[in-house]
From TrEMBL:
Pfam families membership: Epimerase
Species the sequence originates in: Microbacterium trichothecenolyticum
Protein name: Nucleoside-diphosphate-sugar epimerase
NAD-dependent epimerase/dehydratase domain mapped to chain residues: 3-47
Amino acid sequence: MRVAITGGTGFVGRHLATRLDPAETVVVSRRTGVDIDDVDALTGAFRDCEASGPLRRDQP
């Protein structure tokens, strides 16, 4: 199963990514070159993914 991890270079996302198959994992982060403000880049990153996580809650 192909999984996208938002914030995949942060604390939670990084630890989650180490537990998943690297061939089936897409790390979505500014540090990996995915511009989170670019709809086309996000569409490409999430293409063929069946799941995503972790989702970040809004900060106060």
